[in-house]
Amino acid sequence: MTAEEIIASGKLELYITGSLPSEEISEIEDAIATYPEVREEVETIEAALINLAESVAPPLPAMVWTYVLNSIKKIRNIDGTASNKTNWAAMSGWAAAILCFAGIFWMLKQNNDLNKSIQITNIQNTQLKEKVNLTEGELTKQNNLLSVIRSKDFNTITLPGNQAVAPDAYAKVYYNKAENIAYIDANGLPTPPSGKVYQVWSLTLDPLTPTSMGLLEAVTDADKGVHKFENIPTPEAFGITLEPAGGSTTPTLSQLYTLGMVTAAP
């Protein structure tokens, strides 16, 4: 076969990757030694395969390349003398090995990327589940509160703002006299200053006797929720004052924000 026929036959690619039948290897090696254009074609194919391997996998360490090149260059003849010719069989074998290593590295990288993707997905699923559980918990809480507001067992009492202190303030009390339970909706109260807290009082009026029900600890612009109080004494009125952090034993009447009378219970 001529050099052009050998190049066009596709045997050079099979030779380089180690796939050429053994009976045809000597023919290709003779052609490489005889025709410079065949040798150049082999070098071109090898370079292309190596570039392809490098593009799909992490680069081989420098010491691996050095070992490969030294192994190829140090091929000796039977008489012990170093050969001046390139050993194309060794070169093609190492090229095939490099491609194999590149494929393994590529698959390992793909597997590692897949594992990372799975971990991220699991984390996202866990976070989503937590959000769903939180949302369901908030929904249950809101439904329970709605049932309280609608219940005939609770008397709704509006506490208007003290005109001298906070005329725009207000609060609502949902009071169950039979169970001594009260829910305080603090949405109408302004955010307390730093170091201050709202305190709720159960009042009897004659004589004026205040009894602390507790503190509205979490009244902020972002969260003005409904607060539950239990075991409260029977009141004639409810009042809310602004007190130092931790609360007071008696109400600061100059800081009385809201006050409302208890109407007849249903």
Strand content: 15-25%
Secondary structure: helix percent = 40-55%
* Strands, total number: 8
Mean pLDDT: 77
Order of helices and strands: HHHHHHEEEEEEEE
Spatial order of the strands forming the largest sheet? 1-2-3-6
Low-confidence stretches: 72-84
Total count of helical runs of at least 4 residues: 6
Q: Quaternary state, please?
A: single chain
Shape: rod-shaped
- The radius of gyration over CA amounts to 44 Å
Head-to-tail CA distance between termini:
111 Å
What does the largest sheet look like? 4 strands, antiparallel
Task: Give the domain tally.
Answer: 2
Key terms:
266 residues; alpha+beta; Immunoglobulin-like; 2 domains; four-stranded antiparallel sheet
Structural overview:
- By secondary structure, the chain is an alpha+beta fold.
- It has 2 domains: 3-109, no CATH class; 155-261, Immunoglobulin-like (Sandwich), CATH 2.60.40.
- Helices cover 46% and strands 21% of the residues.
- It has 6 helices and 8 strands, in the order ααααααββββββββ.
- It has helices spanning 3-9, 11-16, 22-34, 36-56, 62-73, 88-150, and strands at residues 155-160, 170-176, 181-185, 196-205, 208-216, 226-230, 237-244, 256-261.
- A 4-stranded antiparallel β-sheet has the order 1-2-3-6, covered by helices on one side.
- Strand 4 and strand 5 (208-216) form a beta hairpin.
- The model is unreliable at 72-84 (pLDDT under 50).
